[in-house]
Amino acid sequence: MANPMTVITSLGGGKSRLSNEVKGVVKRDWVPTGRIDFATNLNGNGDAERPSEFKLLVEERRIVESIAGNENLEIQWRLATLKETKAVVTQYHKYLKENSLVKSVFEPEILPPESKDDGSPNAESKRRGLN
Which residue from 109, 117, 127, 129 puts its CA 20 to 30 A from 94's CA? Predict the structure, then answer.
């Protein structure tokens, strides 16, 4: 079996090394399965507390009919598109909000002071000292 990191780095082009070798008729082209994973460079220092670069991977599958008439299921992992990544992040933020896992920070000293505007048309001119 190939080294997993070798397979992951080969995904950088967007397709697996086998995707160009169609051995039959494609009955159903690549469709996402909904499964996701993350990949990173394993050559780092190994410190789990230091930031690192992660890549979001999505799983796809397709059905190819061989020349003998058998249907073969092919599965591949590829880098996620921006649209797919936004969908994952949106769902993650929704989950955090629904489960009260994220708190907003309220600091009154960073907010601008409330104006004493009474809403009248002359309020702006009064503020400037024109009346």
Answer: 109
Tell me the C-alpha distance between 108 and 123, whole Å: 25
Comparing 32 with 19, which gets the higher pLDDT?
32
- pLDDT attached to residue 37: 95
- pLDDT for 14 equals 47
Residue 39 contacts residue 59 (beta carbons within 8 Å):
no
Alpha carbon of 15 to those of 9, 19, 114: distances in Å? 11, 6, 56
Encoded tokens for 121: 């048309």
The DSSP code for 117 is -
The radius of gyration of the chain's CA atoms, rounded to the nearest angstrom, is 27
As given in the structure block, the two tokens for residue 105 are: 């920070």
Q: Is pLDDT of 109 > 80?
A: no
Tell me the pTM.
0.55
Q: Considering only CA atoms, which of 8, 43, 15 is closest in space to residue 29?
A: 15
The two three-digit tokens of residue 74, written as one number = 């092919």
